[in-house]
Amino acid sequence: MDFMLSTEEKKFKESCRKFAMEKLIPISEKYGETDDIPKELIHAMADAGLFSLFLPEDLGGRGVKTLPICLAREELAGIYCPADVTLAMQGLGSYPIYLAGDKDQKEKFLTRIGSGEWLTTYALTEMEAGSDVNGIKSEAKEEVDGFILNGSKRFISNGYAANIAVVFAKTSLIDRPRALSAFILEKGMSGFIVDQRMKMIAPHDIVAFKFDHCFVPKKNLLGKMGEGFKIAMKTLDVFRMSVGAAAVGIGQAAFQAALDYAKKRVQFGSAIAKFQAIQFKLAEMATELDAARALVYRAAILKDRGVDDVSRLASMAKFYATEAAFRAVDQGLQIHGGIGVMKGSVVERLYREIRALRIYEGTSEIQKLIIANSFLKD
Questions:
Q1: Residue positions annotated with a catalytic role
Q2: Are residues 56 and 111 located together in one domain of the fold?
Q3: Where are the alpha helices (DSSP H) in 204-305?
Q4: Which of 137, 212, 282, 357 is 20 to 30 Å apart from 131, CA to CA?
């Protein structure tokens, strides 16, 4: 899909690939799968300028563009999942501030996120509010100098290590009793609690938050009261397509591992790559991954060109890429046979890592609804 990229974008993609091979592979070998975020990883990513992807040019960053975020996630995801998750969460937690933050908020928070000094996260999901954001029960009640926040969040990636979190809570308005608002919470605020560190099939830093009469100053409100839903959805429009990019990266890693294995694995006197059944699998994997990559790049390029409503394109990219990548990883594991289900093999790890991408930031089923409803609305 290089024909879709400019010379500068190709160079950036290659630099991300080089970083992944030279820096992330040694870090992955040292720390392995982990629930923590190694300081060494944060420093390496910051030194490579990856966090500056979320920093506007007027604050010394690269400028916040969607395609570079996607290119970076594509290259990182197949090499070391904690690096991809960290990049994604720096984006999810900073983009609402980029969208709706005032000058002081941007200078205080974005500069620290862009330098890697602070980690951030995005707290939307609750026990009764996953696909249905309107089910959010966390509530912030306005007081003279700020808000009192009560409630909980779960499945919050990088939540244990994060210094700040963008949190969405109900703030009832006269005409909209379920209106949502967005807040920047800083670790150390009284009543802001990491309630549980959660265990997943592919380990990473993921937690549940609890808010117990947590006081949030008015200066930490993002945008205006009642704008939380709009801020959340505009953020997801960008980062849903980047989930598709990460999926492509994982699928591509599975394809390469399967191709290499098929060339050297001998059965019945021949390398299994010579068998038509294996060739068909490789052909399907390669074709679907290219189609997925094209959908991701299209959505990101049009977003960066100023197309305002990219919800349909983002959902198409996220839906197809995650499903295609899952099929590619599954086929790649099948080609490996018994080796593929051994703990510690590349495809076994990828098989566990790809599964969550079909769920988070909107399940495949939700993406289908968004796509279909966009046509029905038109």
A1: 361
A2: yes
A3: 228-264, 276-304
A4: 212
